[in-house]
């Protein structure tokens, strides 16, 4: 508890848990109400609660690349003069979004409105006060664009990737704008599924409004609003204490992306990390210029990756909110891979470049805290998208792989690593929902790097198509293996095959019914000399 806060420690802890439970209940509402397997099964979605100034005060522990970038979405909405009873929808990566499939809803929360139409005074003016914002972000299985699933490997401008939505009122004064909803649904495949998923996001935000009203009734408005600032201050003080424990200094590292879907040449990412007392600065000067292909990442995505690393290297029990981010600053040159200018294509930047940013910042900070940084994990989300050319279905999956070994234990097998935190699509659900048949789903024996502690194993997943379709793959670590540390061996590289023939890491192909797509994901690096006893 901060010295200036009038809230006693017990009340603060109660409020902190209740605010986090609001975000968690939002997530459960979204997952249970969604129609698409990508949200209801894989849980590719995130929810959070913000205060009236746009500061994150609580989040559900969902998808790291979503959550760290959410403040940019709220900032973008704040510029649109939101009113009680509004709901904004957006996905524009250059106006608060990350990549187009991630659709964000931002709802102002006002005392007494609970998501209903504006309360007005006798003069007809809005009398309700906005006290915060409910935010939900979900990966929609299709938002238009040149290929089903909106994850085209060959896109060279954002217009090819799908419908681009700047911050737009979907609900105004408590009334849904049918024209806006119709415009969105007219530009996507399978609009029935998209409509249901959008409604689930709306319901999640409404749940936050209901829960916040109950907290006001329980504790009083002033106490809850003071609690917003108190929990942020509490997290800031704890994260600053953790940063002060790191040795001051400047640490550098580089890594590469394996092409961008247009070129196969390696693309360099450079990070200079400076620890100075209770602050940490990351500068990506020297990183490649923005690309012709779609692996460009908006600055908010790079920031999100940095925040994730800082969270991993400090106390995981620190409540995740704006206070965790305040002591951290991130810079990238304008027009670069990590701060592109429109109309750059970005769909691969959110899913793959974010993973490499995580790896390179971990590598830099390993020089300051070697015992806290594991060997490299798979370093990719292994994005597989399969869609009917008639728009009848769109299947999207990120496939787990090997987690790097730690200094005191083996890496985990077949898990999501880094900037994603989704579940898989169960075989039963996949085969029931789509014209697909799973032929094989197993761990890749021997894919984890040897070491005193072994790296985690990757996965092999083979799917046969039962109808003609378009297949898109956005993957990494197909040439450069996840690195072991301290004498540990590298993990195995991944591999993509169509009917047994190897295909590039990033590719989009039209295939016929009966085609089998196989993704073999990378293993994690080992830790320590494998010849030395544990």
Automatic annotation (TrEMBL):
One Gene Ontology term from the biological process aspect of the record: glutathione metabolic process
Classification via InterPro entries: Hydantoinase_B, Oxoprolinase-like
GO function terms (MF aspect): 5-oxoprolinase (ATP-hydrolyzing) activity
Hydantoinase B/oxoprolinase domain span: 8-530
Annotated segments matching region Disordered: 478-534
One Gene Ontology CC term in the entry: cytosol
Protein origin, superkingdom: Archaea
PANTHER family membership: 5-OXOPROLINASE RELATED, HYPOTHETICAL 5-OXOPROLINASE (EUROFUNG)-RELATED
Protein name (record): 5-oxoprolinase
Species: Natronolimnobius baerhuensis
């Amino acid at each position: 508890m901060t010295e200036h806060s009038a809230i006693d420690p017990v009340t603060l802890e109660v409020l902190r848990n209740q605010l986090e439970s609001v975000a968690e209940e939002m997530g459960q509402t979204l997952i249970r109400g969604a129609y698409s397997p990508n949200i209801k099964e894989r849980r590719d979605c995130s929810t959070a609660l913000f205060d009236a100034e746009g500061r994150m005060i609580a989040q559900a522990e969902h998808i790291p690349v979503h959550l760290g970038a959410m403040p940019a979405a709220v900032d973008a909405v704040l510029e649109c003069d939101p009113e009680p009873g509004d709901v904004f929808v957006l996905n524009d990566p250059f106006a608060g979004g990350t990549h187009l499939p991630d659709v964000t809803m931002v709802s102002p929360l006002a005392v007494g409105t609970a998501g209903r139409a504006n309360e007005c005074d006798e003069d007809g003016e809005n009398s309700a006060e906005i006290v915060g914002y409910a935010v939900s972000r979900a990966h929609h299985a299709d938002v238009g664009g040149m290929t089903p699933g909106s994850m085209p490997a060959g896109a060279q401008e954002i217009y090819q990737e799908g419908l681009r939505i700047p911050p737009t009122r979907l609900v105004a004064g408590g009334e849904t704008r049918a024209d806006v909803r119709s415009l969105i649904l007219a530009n996507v495949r399978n609009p029935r599924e998209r409509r249901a998923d959008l409604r689930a996001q709306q319901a999640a935000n409404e749940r936050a409004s209901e829960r916040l009203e109950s907290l006001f009734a329980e504790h009083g408005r002033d106490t809850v609003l003071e609690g917003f600032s108190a929990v942020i201050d509490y997290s800031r003080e704890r994260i600053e204490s953790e940063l002060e424990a790191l040795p001051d200094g400047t640490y550098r590292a580089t890594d590469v992306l394996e092409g961008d879907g247009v070129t196969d040449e390696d693309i360099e990412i450079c990070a200079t990390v400076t620890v100075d007392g209770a602050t940490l600065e990351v500068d990506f000067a020297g990183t490649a210029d923005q690309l012709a292909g779609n692996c460009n990442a908006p600055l908010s995505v790079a920031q999100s990756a940095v925040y994730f690393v800082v969270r991993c290297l400090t106390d995981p029990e620190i409540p995740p909110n704006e206070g965790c981010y305040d002591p951290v600053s991130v810079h990238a040159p304008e027009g670069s891979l990590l701060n592109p200018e429109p109309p750059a294509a970005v769909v691969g930047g959110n899913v793959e470049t974010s993973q490499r940013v995580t790896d390179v910042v971990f590598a830099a900070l390993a020089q300051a805290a070697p015992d806290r940084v594991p060997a490299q994990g798979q370093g990719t989300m292994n994005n597989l998208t399969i869609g009917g050319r008639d728009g009848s279905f769109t299947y999207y999956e990120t496939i787990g792989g090997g987690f790097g070994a730690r200094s005191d234990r083996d890496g985990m097998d077949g898990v999501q690593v880094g900037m994603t935190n989704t579940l898989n699509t169960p075989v039963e659900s996949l085969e029931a929902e789509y014209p697909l048949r799973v032929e094989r789903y197993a761990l890749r024996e021997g894919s984890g790097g040897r070491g005193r502690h072994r790296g985690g194993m990757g996965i092999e997943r083979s799917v046969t198509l039962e109808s003609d379709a378009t297949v898109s793959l956005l993957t990494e670590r197909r040439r450069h293996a996840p690195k072991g540390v301290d004498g540990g061996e590298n993990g195995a590289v991944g591999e993509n095959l169509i009917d047994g023939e190897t295909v590039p890491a990033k590719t989009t192909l039209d295939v016929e019914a009966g085609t089998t797509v196989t993704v073999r994901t990378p293993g994690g690096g080992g830790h320590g000399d494998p010849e030395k006893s544990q």
